[in-house]
Amino acid sequence: MAITIERQRGLIRESDEQFGLECPYCGVYAHMSPESVPEFDKIATARPKHVGLVYLCDACRAPVFLRFAVKEFRDNEIELYRNFIELERPKERFQYSYLPADTARLLREAFGCYAADLRLAFAVLCRKCIASAVQSESMSNPSAFEQLFHDASELAELRPDTRAMLQAALFGSEAEPELDADQAAILVEIVKDMFQQRFVRTAKLRRAIEMRRFFASAESDANVTPIAPLPPRANSSSSCSDGRRSQTAPNVRRRMARYCSR
User: Fold this and answer.
1) Please, are residues 78 and 72 in contact by the beta-carbon 8 Å criterion?
2) Whose CA is closest to 177, among 104, 135, 128, 107?
């Protein structure tokens, strides 16, 4: 699908397919409409290597800035490459509340550096995140993160050279780990998986087990057989007695609701 800027008609796409991506503001994958296109005469005179276009998100109506490389200059049109660079990337989503406070702050900054395409700062902050997690009270085994890294690398089937580069960036002693765009994109997913497995999954599993134990103990307390048998009741009040005997289940549900809201 060729993208051209014509002298008379402006921005033209050969295909009628809609152009969509994840909006960096609302986080919704939405259709993008061209909003601001530079004039053909100005581009033809300056002949830059890249051209910036502004699109409008159909979901939140926010401007999204994209940079395209120029492929060819012609008399009445300028052809652009299909690939583009997002000047503002969507924020990485993560459940920071499960992490220690210092580790969560560093991880937010690391993902912010990745969104700004600051790869060196991103790699350094990822290393600091792991060091902070190891020093936290909830991280008693220093080699646990290295094992998590190896497990994630095997699941992702990373190449040996890529795995060695990422391992050096996270656990090495180099002051400035250099990463290219592809390696940084892989690292952000590896780091998210490592912290997900170590903190988020662990906390959710423990909470689920505690809730199951609470439910089991509540059910066992509710099903205790009374010592003295209940006196017989008339048929007209049998429905009432059934309602009284069935009050244990609502009591259990109310106790569960109070426990989960803590």
Assistant:
1) yes
2) 128
